Amino acid sequence: MSVRLSQAVTGLYIVLCIFASTSALAYETTLTITGQNSSGHEVNVTLTRSQLEELPQTSLTTHLPWIKEQAEFSGVKLTTLLNAYQLEPTEILMSALNDYSASSSWKHIRKYEPIIAIKKNDQYLKIRDYGPYWLVFSIDKYPELSQRKNLAKMVWQLETIKAE
Q: Partners of 43 in the beta sheet?
């Protein structure tokens, strides 16, 4: 291989490495929470996965209609997350990366204690596998949640939570 060709290949390799690392950094999955807290102040915070992991973590094991077997999900309870920002909504609107949205009452959330799952069976959720964040309720613990109206509240690829 000539010196010029070798330099060109090396240069192209460096450019591709820089582009790949910049692209990876440019798309960090986040979760945005908005609402008015109990003091009347507007909350608008965007959290990274590592920031979510700093909150108290919990897990639940359940079957879901979208997966073949029972799985253990781990993450932060939605109530814990909202309480951390002093949000006491009556209604919660959740939106996904694909623009799907669903709402749930605060009463429903407090009763069933769903988690914002970050991991399934100790593996981080990926976008292609319902992640990076998935609002998961325990159907095994609360069989009534297997009704279609309740399944629709289990927003995967969760991107925003609006506390109203």
A: 35
Q: How far is CA 149 from CA 23, 28, 131, in A?
A: 38, 31, 21
**Digit-coded pLDDT (tens) for 105-133:** 999 999 999 999 999 999 999 999 999 99
* CA distances from residue 40 to 13, 95, 161 in whole angstroms, order as listed: 53, 23, 18
Report how far residue 34's alpha carbon sits from residue 42's, in angstroms, rounded to the nearest whole number: 7
Residue given tokens 């925003």 in the structure block: 160
Bridge partners (DSSP) of residue 119 are: 74, 124
For residue 67, which amino acid is it?
Answer: I
Listing DSSP states for 68-79 in one string gives: SS-EEEEEEEHH
Which two three-digit tokens encode residue 40? Answer: 């009347």
C-beta neighbour count of 140 within 10 angstroms: 14
Compute CA distances 11 → 6, 7, 8, 18, 20, whole Å. 9, 6, 5, 11, 14
